[in-house]
Amino acid sequence: MLLLYHCVISQESIDYGFFIEASIMDYDESLQYIKDCTKHGIKLGLERITEILKRLGNPQDQFKAIHIAGTNGKGSTAAMYNSVLRQAGYRTGCYTSPHLVSYRERFVVNQHPITPAQMAEVVTKIQPVLQSIGRDGFGAPTQFEVLTAIAFEFFALQKIEAAIIEVGMGGRFDATNVLHPHLSVITHIALDHQEFLGDTLAKIAFEKAGIIKPGVPLVVGLQEPEIENFLTKIAMERGASPKNADTIDYRNLTLSEKGTQFDIEDSYLGRLSISLGLIGAHQAANCLNVLAGMEFLESASLPIEKEALLKGLAQCSWPGRFEKITLPNSLKLYFDGAHNPDGAQVLVKTIQALFPGKKVDLLFGILNNRPCDAVATILSEVTRRVIVTTVPDPKSTSVNEMAKSFQTLGIPVIIEPSPDKALDLLLTTDNQVAVATGSLYLIGYLRGLLYGTGEE
Prior knowledge:
Elements: E1 2-11, E2 14-23, H1 27-36, H2 47-55, E3 64-69, H3 74-87, E4 92-95, E5 107-109, E6 112-113, H4 116-135, H5 143-157, E7 162-166, E8 183-186, H6 194-197, H7 201-208, E9 218-220, H8 225-237, E10 242-244, E11 249-256, E12 259-266, E13 270-276, H9 281-291, H10 294-299, H11 306-315, E14 323-325, E15 332-336, H12 341-354, E16 360-365, H13 372-379, E17 383-388, H14 399-407, E18 413-415, H15 419-427, E19 433-438, H16 440-451
Parallel strand pairs: 3-7, 3-8, 4-7, 8-9, 9-10, 15-19, 16-17, 16-19, 17-18
Antiparallel strand pairs: 1-2, 4-5, 5-6, 11-12, 12-13, 14-15
């Protein structure tokens, strides 16, 4: 079966419309097309994605958007904004990365992932445009550019009212930075992706600050003082009204295995008692990114009543981020994608707060572009024993290298290259608490094993 799609290209300021004939893909074919795009690597820049979206009719201009950059906490912040907006009755789209089990998790409308049929339809529609881009001298689109185009086209087709868009990497040259959002958010900045973004916090902050746009209000998450000052200065220079998360007073923080509770006082929201569905002091800090944005959303004609705000935060969930896994036995098992030193420090603090004085058993796997020694050193503080395994990704650190990182710290190590067998070992521990951590690709694979939801 063939479909005709109308495309628009611009030449010397004149738009020419034409129809392209395309064969309809099924879901497996569309998925393979996306996977095949990994061969084009990572090429930061906006020229190609701008042209792709122009030829699709600029779908990203058909909805209001919240644009979220940062190192850690982007996904949790996005999940909270999405949950709160849904509770307020808005039709929402949420685009995040990476996925845990299925690519479909990246494209969510009203908290439902894109269906296989919808994915096939959207990829079929945009494929001719993507091919024409390569032929016309712009170069082959990267996988993230293709995924971003899918997200914007899908959200436009679904006629959403508000999109929550997470930056893939950096900000300045990230494919999502073609957006003209109604609110920008920069969560906590730490060292990560140094090979692309720079080897200092200042260099990384400069890249993240690339999402700050003239006239678009900005929420600045909790930062090191020099980074907060830098981001605030850039925002003021660009006429982007900043609100810093640290202007919200929060206290009486309490963690439990069910969530996080704390009180806040804010010039706009007043006094509130927050019960958050996510676990950890860091999630309270991420929540401030949402609370600080409420005033700006009202100005963008997306007002949130306090009842919807509180209910949305209480019901928020975000898989793979200190996620409690329900088991038939008494073992307390958590999955957490702590894949850099900042994330590892957060995980250690959460374990110490929930289980003071206890050491946990770890299942660990990490990619070779992460500082394995540094992460292991941090995690050793709360580790009784570690099982190291292979991340199901070509960039996995070798199990022997991971083992050495822990062994030099005096931590007993079990080497099990198979993640399936490694999970079985973890589940049979005689310890009370166990945590699988490291790469989100590993966490996603393990979730697929336990819940049977894997597709790829």
